[in-house]
Task: structure prediction
Amino acid sequence: MAEPILSARNIKKYFNVSGGTLKAVDDISFDIYKGETLGLVGESGCGKTTAGRTIIRLYEPTGGELFFEGQDIYKIPRHSMKPVRRNIQMIFQDPYASLNPRMTVEEIIAEPLEIHGIYKSEKQRRERVYELLQLVGLNEEHALRFPHEFSGGQRQRIGVARSLALNPKFIVCDEPISALDVSIQAQVVNLLKNLQTQMGLTYLFIAHDLSMVRYISDRVGVMYLGMMMELSKSEELYDHPIHPYTQALLSAIPIPDPEIQRSRKRIILEGDVPSPIDPGPGCRFADRCFYAIDECRKVTPEFKEVRPEHFVACHRSGEILAGTAAMTK
Result:
């Protein structure tokens, strides 16, 4: 297999809070290959967005290594990150909050070009802005308008145009469709797929819409309470989930076939998500897992390959794969 464009190794992001240490991202590892989309899913508060922001150093990591094109960018002094930032960009979740209301669309999209000194003349910069607007399905007339004059879907297109201004190689898409109407979500996702094909982009696509993640992603990682629980190719994960948490998540996806939907068994998780503040040893999911045994509560499971390119952090993954694991609750 080709060398990954990005490799995350044991990344941690902790926050000091009044009750102790909040472990928002705790020792996650994965690779992303050129031209692919890695989906990152999990329930609200599991650490997906924090992981994305830590990867591009909007948050400084507590620990770990992040190799981009073979270089550990966590070892680069923060003031020397400018060349790296040209190749790593982000599309933010909220198209209403991520655009400066006092700037025109032209100023918003041109800002990264000015910061990096890409074009010396204003004419060249304006032509590049027009080119980017057309690329995302808008036109030159939109350049002099302000963000409040656009719909949510149009604003997110402006955010996409801004992220493309510097011709990056890797983009973190932080729930880019969650604030949009359902009718607009597919348009934005199709735009991202088309841009990826045209420009050879690589995405980390963070979302909680499991159906949309399946549509856009080549591989999918599942997070729970700051840790990676499962990672594999998209179709493999959706057709053969191994971790009990992944199985519960996927059982909640409605299927547009009444016969199949009626015959499906929904997995209802009991209990509440434990606190991410100073969690003890063991599997974070153990208190809600039907398969949990004493070992699960005492020893943190290793994130390991249990099938080709299918990684799981579960002590009982072998038994679940073999269909011999008994529920203990």
In short: The longest strand covers residues 20-32. DSSP finds twelve helices and twelve strands in the chain. The mean pLDDT is 90.
